[in-house]
């Protein structure tokens, strides 16, 4: 595992995931961070800078310029290798698998070589000290970059990932992750597991606003990010990215829920 150690960070830290090629949301986040007085040196991304949206190259450029430290997501790893799919591990033939065949080729085509080289150099995890706590940031899980850990995942699933990660990093007080698209906090065995959510798509709650988090004074605060979702949708439509995620930007509903664990899926009508 490739690990970057940022040492000790003083002051509020902004953590965010999944810009997803959504330039409008990423621009809004940087403006929000500036407004909160959090400079790039205290911003950390949990990965998947490029994915569903229309603005891959511009989003990467903005994150590299103002987004702070970034851990590799599965999309970064796959794009860096020129792989034929996003590496999410979707079941073959599932709705998510079929949808990814629409957006991933566009993402690959729109990500220039210098951006792919930058992605190849990204770490698998970031560690730092903050307000007396040792914190690690990764994308999905330590056993699998694309592991989905949900709010409903049993504690043992989180414990296993913690054990594997701490074998590489040493003892931790907090783990910050991304990938699943939902912001949440779990506490077990004295450790906080925080998912910062993603800024590029809403969390399937019927609203266009997306999510990010801040760490401050020993607390995690989850924030809604309001931005010009209609403009982001129009950019996707202009690029021909109309398989379903374009509508998610404005209606707040995922085009498929088959990736969700059974207990989190809506009831059949």
Automatic annotation (TrEMBL):
Q: Which InterPro entries match?
A: Metallo-depent_PP-like
Name this protein carries in UniProt: Diadenosine tetraphosphatase
* Source organism (scientific name): Brevirhabdus pacifica
Q: Which Gene3D superfamilies match?
A: 3.60.21.10
């Amino acid at each position: 595992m490739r690990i970057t150690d940022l040492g000790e960070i003083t002051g509020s830290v902004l953590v965010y995931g999944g810009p997803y090629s959504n330039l409008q949301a990423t621009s809004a986040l940087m403006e929000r961070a500036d407004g909160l007085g959090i400079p790039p040196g205290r911003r950390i991304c949990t990965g998947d800078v490029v994915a569903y949206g229309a603005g891959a190259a511009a989003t990467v450029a903005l994150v590299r310029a103002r987004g702070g430290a970034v851990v590799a997501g599965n999309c970064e790893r796959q794009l860096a290798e020129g792989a034929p799919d996003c590496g999410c591990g979707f079941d073959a033939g599932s709705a998510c698998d079929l949808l990814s065949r629409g957006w991933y080729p566009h993402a690959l085509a729109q990500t220039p070589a210098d951006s792919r080289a930058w992605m190849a150099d990204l770490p698998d995890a970031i560690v730092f000290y903050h307000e007396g706590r040792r914190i690690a940031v990764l994308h999905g899980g330590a056993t699998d970059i694309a592991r989905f850990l949900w709010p409903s995942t049993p504690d043992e699933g989180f414990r296993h990932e913690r054990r594997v990660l701490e074998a590489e990093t040493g003892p931790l007080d907090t783990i910050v992750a991304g990938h699943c698209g939902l912001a949440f906090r779990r506490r077990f065995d004295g450790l906080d597991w925080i998912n910062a959510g993603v800024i590029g798509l809403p969390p399937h709650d019927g609203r266009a606003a997306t999510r990010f988090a801040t760490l401050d004074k020993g607390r995690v605060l989850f924030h809604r990010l309001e931005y010009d979702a209609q403009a982001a949708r129009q950019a996707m439509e202009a690029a021909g990215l109309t398989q379903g995620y374009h509508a998610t930007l404005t209606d707040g509903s995922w085009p498929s829920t088959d990736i969700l664990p059974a207990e989190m899926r809506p009831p059949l009508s």
